[in-house]
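Objective 1.3, modelling of assemblies. Example input:
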Amino acid sequence: MKEIKSVETLKEFLGTAKKRGAVVGLVPTMGYLHDGHISLIRAAKKHAGKNGVVVVSIYVNPLQFGPNEDFKKYPRDLKRDRRICMDEGVDVLFLPSDSEMCPALDGPNAMTTFVVEEKLSALYEGESRPGHFKGVTTIVAKLFNIVQPDFAVFGEKDYQQLMIIKRMVRDLNYPVKIVSVPTVRDQNNVALSSRLEYLKPESREMASILWNTIQKARDRVATRKSILTWRLRDKLMRYINRRKNVKVDYIAFFDSQTLEPVREVKKGTHMAVAMYVDGVRLIDNAKL
Amino acid sequence: MKEIKSVETLKEFLGTAKKRGAVVGLVPTMGYLHDGHISLIRAAKKHAGKNGVVVVSIYVNPLQFGPNEDFKKYPRDLKRDRRICMDEGVDVLFLPSDSEMCPALDGPNAMTTFVVEEKLSALYEGESRPGHFKGVTTIVAKLFNIVQPDFAVFGEKDYQQLMIIKRMVRDLNYPVKIVSVPTVRDQNNVALSSRLEYLKPESREMASILWNTIQKARDRVATRKSILTWRLRDKLMRYINRRKNVKVDYIAFFDSQTLEPVREVKKGTHMAVAMYVDGVRLIDNAKL
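Predicted structure (tokens):
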């Protein structure tokens, strides 16, 4: 495995690989890798094929964190990440520096160009985290321009992000195929996330409330033609509010493709939830 | 010369060229080609070298026109443009369709992702034409993603645009070299522009007021260490206001690199002007 820090070195390395016709796949991450990331890497290895090159980038992107969010305390463990990437047969571990990815935010060298998706980014996660998706699309665009991958892999756990990246690729004609990978869950059906690290071990099981809420909604629509959104949300809120130390941020029901909120929920409607479990913000989603 | 309308066909064609190691150069235009464009094309031919491929794109980009601007009446003459490109040895004339470049602005298929440079774009031309540079950077980003050129050629006539494109390339890590070409002028020193077409032939000479104003400023700073910006602007306004049918939009003095306005003008300060000559909006700029 090559470990590369500079954009220039990466380009050189990939230039040679591309010349011999290698398919290049990118797995953009913020590190602190878990089984969810491993499934992204495995999908990338499979998709790239025998002579392909899989690049895993680790960059905790300051642009996608709000001023009161957890940028500083976001968990990091490069040693473990490196070991995982080696075990998984990653070809390049790309560790770009702040000075190349995101120079000063003010001053004469400040970054002043951004990629902004204006519609889908305003909903749900975007409403709760203003500027979040602008940070995501900008950094992903930069990674696409640096790596120029044939494909890039994203998890369905961040479903709205996945759809926004797909929209960006379509709107800006990026020559990159987006490969999506199903959410990986633990034995309690908690969607894996680096932020679970913030939970006390004894609270971890509480996090299953996100999946249980989705199941509750799924049960409801399974036996009905449809149900009014506000009515279903009401029922779910009552279900959640019975728990201590769980606070709902949003429960959203929308069209899987357009992300437009729906007035009536039925089988096939997409559901996304964000909750604070013991003070830790977690998200999950599924097609009902 | 290949004339190509679809993104897919262009990619196929360029894919083959790149495989044999050809350097690819892009000259993005809105058509109605004049000697200024020809000098861009010649620079591209030279820069691409013997085995290179020069792509000229013609696309009148609706995104960069304001609602009250001249999008509809912007001059078009494909027959003449085609002839010019053939004469100049252009390899590919790329004529993308609205449906590929800029699908509906509302509705489910609307484009919702844009590339926005937030600082330089707010000044001068951007102040007079809100949204203009957002349209420019977005379309140029799309063309870069479609063509994936090794270099792209822009004229210094649109100096602010040139600097914004360079900033975009730096901020988003586009692997594209930006080549700039000096402004081409007619016998009266009028900077060539497709919009000169709007002038009655008898008003064309009046357009030299832009260059003459720049010369006036140049004369002023040639003999002084510096001059206060407001004082110089005042003098120039008086000079211009002696003419009939000329209205100043802006006279700006700024640092060539940062585009920051200066309080004092001296040799080397950059100057840009926008004026309505007989109702037609024209721009020019130069380093003093």
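The first strand of chain B starts at residue 2 and ends at 4.
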